[in-house]
Amino acid sequence: MSSNCTVESSTIETGDGVNLRARVFKPNSSGGNNIDNLAIVLVHPYSILGGCQGLLRGIGTRLADKGYRAVTFDMRGAGRSTGKPSITGFAEVKDVIAVCKWVSENLSVNRILLVGSSAGAPIAGSAVDQIVQVVGYVSIGYPFGLMASILFGRHHGSILKSPKPKLFIMGTRDGFTSVKQLNAKLSSASGPVQTHLIEGASHFQMEGPAFDTQMVELIIGFISSL
Fold this sequence. Notes:
The chain is built from 9 helices and 8 strands. α2 (57-65) crosses α9 (212-223). 46% of the residues are buried. The longest helix has 17 residues, at 90-106. By secondary structure, the chain is an alpha/beta fold.
């Protein structure tokens, strides 16, 4: 895919001394005040199963092509970042907080949208209310199901209790979470909640490049509601 955006690499240090490798996707031309003061931070799938920022490159590129600044990063122990990944993702919440702090200071933005993919969704969700600049949250395939909850169940409360606007995107054939389980979880959620179901899509299909354009359209549509 051809793109007109610029990609810059940076290293971000967390509060506990881990160095995270990050990429900033910047549009070549600015598109307006709302876009200027908002950045989108993308949180990749489970590191232990091979998740890394490269999986989000397509979304980052397309967001920049639409005029938004997007940031991807390798969580601890993934890619070229230092440290070790955690099984439950709680150490990685520190990574999200550090990246958002860096974004607000270095990209001169006062609004951040957090987007988490797969296991990145519960990790990002646990960080939402710890970052003042975060104005909204998008989940792509949040693993709410019973088996996944063994690993990530303790993250659920943070995002469900958050008053900040939320969008949950899921395929109807997710495999980790059924539509019934998603609706049951979100029935108790605080704040504005939107859902978007993609008919026939599986969990890992939605992580693939074939869905990048659709994910970007949904993210941009959600931003317009903030």
